[in-house]
């Protein structure tokens, strides 16, 4: 089982809105690949929250894992796209997912049964969110992999959150912009590869996935460093959720023991296909059919 903890929200574009949130996107992709996924989040007791519950039920998620907040609204992000389809995010603060609760009597069995636990940074931006998320990732067995998709959003992280998270990380996924921010944070003026090796050694991280946009991506493991060119999208609609798609396919490949080059190539292909649809989640489950044969 894969356990995913974090935000589910609405991405609000100028003329439409889409369901999103990096952890939800990750969970949704893996569920549609055929994996057993449990997704823990928190929504408001409002129209947006009710719509999310309906959508999650249709997607066959366990609704007992979704907490309902009587005080805070369901999360949302206002998104503007530039001429290349690259997003600019305005993330609404103090919303329901900031208050996801760790409930030992309910969540301990899920943690114990997980092969992989996914988490990010945004859900830790409040003191409550950080304490509860850290409680989730501090209790798993040594056999369980912690997958940290760092996803640094302006005003939604600090050094303490990142350091605590890195110390609990087995697999780290980040992009070159986020790598630059980490270098700055840790005052390291060294090249990217050297810095990745520094992170691996100082935080006992086993695997690093580095996405580089149009320059492709790299995978750092104890077998060495592997690289891949980006797969070309037929027609880019927007790049929202491309990184989450990359993370999902990468995690799937690691759980299925694919070779590093296979992981890179298939993750690049899947993320490029997500760029061909509006938002981070395709409208039809048929989108996944060409990929199911991989598993």
Question: What features would you describe in this structure?
Answer:
This protein has 295 residues and is an alpha/beta fold. The protein has a single domain (20-39, 100-292), classed as UDP-N-acetylmuramoyl-L-alanine:D-glutamate ligase. It has 10 helices and 13 strands. The strands form 2 sheets. It has a 9-stranded mixed sheet with strand order 5-4-1-8-9-10-11-12-13, with helices on both faces. It has a 4-stranded mixed sheet with strand order 3-2-6-7. Strand 9 (145-149), helix 5 and strand 10 form a beta-alpha-beta unit. The longest helix is centred in the last third of the chain and has 15 residues, at 260-274. The two termini are 15 Å apart. The model has no long low-confidence stretch (mean pLDDT 91).
Helix and strand arrangement:
Elements: E1 2-5, E2 9-12, E3 17-20, H1 22-33, E4 37-44, H2 47-58, E5 66-69, E6 75-81, E7 87-91, H3 104-113, E8 116-119, H4 127-137, E9 145-149, H5 159-166, E10 171-175, H6 176-185, H7 192-203, E11 207-211, E12 217-221, E13 224-228, H8 242-255, H9 260-274, H10 289-292
Parallel strand pairs: 1-4, 1-8, 2-6, 4-5, 8-9, 9-10, 10-11
Antiparallel strand pairs: 2-3, 6-7, 11-12, 12-13
Helix pairs in contact: 1-8, 8-9
């Amino acid at each position: 089982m894969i356990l995913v903890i974090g935000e589910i929200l609405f991405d609000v574009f100028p003329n439409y809105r889409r369901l999103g949130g990096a952890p939800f996107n990750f969970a949704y992709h893996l569920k549609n690949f055929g994996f057993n996924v449990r997704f823990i989040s928190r929504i408001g007791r409002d129209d947006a929250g009710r719509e999310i519950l309906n959508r999650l039920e249709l997607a066959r998620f366990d609704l007992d894992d979704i907490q309902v907040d009587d005080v805070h609204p369901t999360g949302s992000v206002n998104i503007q796209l530039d001429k290349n389809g690259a997003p600019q995010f305005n993330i609404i603060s103090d919303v329901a997912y900031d208050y996801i609760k760790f409930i030992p009597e309910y969540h301990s069995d899920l943690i114990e049964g997980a092969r992989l636990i996914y988490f990010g940074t945004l859900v830790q931006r409040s003191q409550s969110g950080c304490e509860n998320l850290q409680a989730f990732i501090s209790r798993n067995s040594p056999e369980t992999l912690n997958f940290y998709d760092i996803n640094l959003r302006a005003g939604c992280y600090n050094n303490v959150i990142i350091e605590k998270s890195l110390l609990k990380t087995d697999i780290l996924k980040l992009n070159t912009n986020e790598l630059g921010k980490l270098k700055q944070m840790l005052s390291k003026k060294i090249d990217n590869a050297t810095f990745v090796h520094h992170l691996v050694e100082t935080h006992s991280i086993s695997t690093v996935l580095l996405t580089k946009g149009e320059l492709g991506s790299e995978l750092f493991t104890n077998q060495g460093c592997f690289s891949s060119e980006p797969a070309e999208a037929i027609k880019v609609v927007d790049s929202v959720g491309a990184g989450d798609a990359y993370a999902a396919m990468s995690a799937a490949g690691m759980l299925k023991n694919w070779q590093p080059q296979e992981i890179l190539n298939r993750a690049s292909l899947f993320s490029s296909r997500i760029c061909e649809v509006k938002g981070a989640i395709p409208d039809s489950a048929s989108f996944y059919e060409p990929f199911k044969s991989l598993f």
